[in-house]
Amino acid sequence: MEKSEKRGRPIILAVDDSPVNLRTVKVFLEAKYDVIPVKSGILGLNALKGRKIDLILLDIDMPLMSGFDFLKQLKQIPEKSGIPVICITGLDATPELIAQVIKSGAKDFLTKPFEPDTLMSKISRVLHNEWRF
User: Fold this and answer.
1) Is residue 43 part of a domain?
2) Can you count the helices (H) and strands (E) in the chain?
């Protein structure tokens, strides 16, 4: 059993190739959530093994495995495919990009740089099934 499960704190997997972004997310969230930061999609998929993850924060634009590639592989893991994902990106939020995020199965979308309160609000809505794109 995960240490966090004993305390009842949700576990968030943060997948981003930027160490600065990972540290920032961890600092913003660590008072309320347990955050597992990983710096690539491959490490993110490995981090899912043997863990109960409540939510994934996923960068879209990463080398080797994009966020979209991560989402495709996540869908192929039956016991993990239902984990909600919020995509975070520094890319422009064009209608085409947002449509691609929705089609890929993400629950919400956020552009960098983001306000901590906006991130917390989106996480809370997704975790409580109150999300609307």
Assistant:
1) yes
2) 6, 5
